[in-house]
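Progress report, Aim 2. The chain analyzed during this reporting quarter is listed below.
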Amino acid sequence: MVLALLEYLWLVPLGFVAGIIGSMIGLGGGFVIVPALTFAGFSPTLAASDSLFAAFCNAVASTLSYARQKRIVYSLGIKLALFSLPGTVLGAYISDEISASAFKILFGIVLVASSVYIYSRRKMEPKEYHLSKQIMMLAIGASFFAGIISSLFGIGGGTVFIPLMVVAIGLSMKLAAPTSQFILMFAAASGMIVHSLLGHPDYAQAGLLSIGAFAGGIVGSKISSRVDERKLKIFVTLILAITSIKLFVDAFNTPVKTH
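Predicted structure tokens for the chain:
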């Protein structure tokens, strides 16, 4: 047990870096953790389920910090979180059926979408805050889809939630990213429970990732208002683009490690 923990100590700094970046841009750290685990040979199901533990801890730490800064819209966050829960259950079950190559191709597409979102987030302008019946129907469908993505790929649904909150609902970006982390706390918890019932995660690995992600979430939320967003945006976009290309290239020929 001790030797196994020593072998996977690198998961702590991985979780920390992912936690900082994920907290600052509101996407959770899964889009950093899951590709790293996949490239290390982890199976898709194991990578996604382990990552959800880190995503949950990162979201808890970020939410606690953002709550003190009064940057979370709780009424909206609770609604979107509840809408996402059925999707997280479905995503966990789908992860049992998906092949490694299909996972990498689909996850590569998700990373491309994430990079487009990050690069264009400054251009997204909030409208007047409103929740009409039409917007609520859109929010229900989008949240359900975000829940599937969150649980299937072990990442946050921020690529769906933030554009939804900013463009459709009219929330400012300053409030949307923290509210996204609040939503992720519930989505990740739900996915985490279902994955655990299905026997997917390795709890030792998940624990190491979670330690780093929790610390990273605290650091990221504290420095989010002081970091040069333009430089961060370019850096993260490049990393996601390179990662997605490698996922596509390796899609049909990557060794699998289950533990």
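Residues 10-250 form one domain. The chain has a mean pLDDT of 85. These observations will guide the mutagenesis work planned for the next reporting period.
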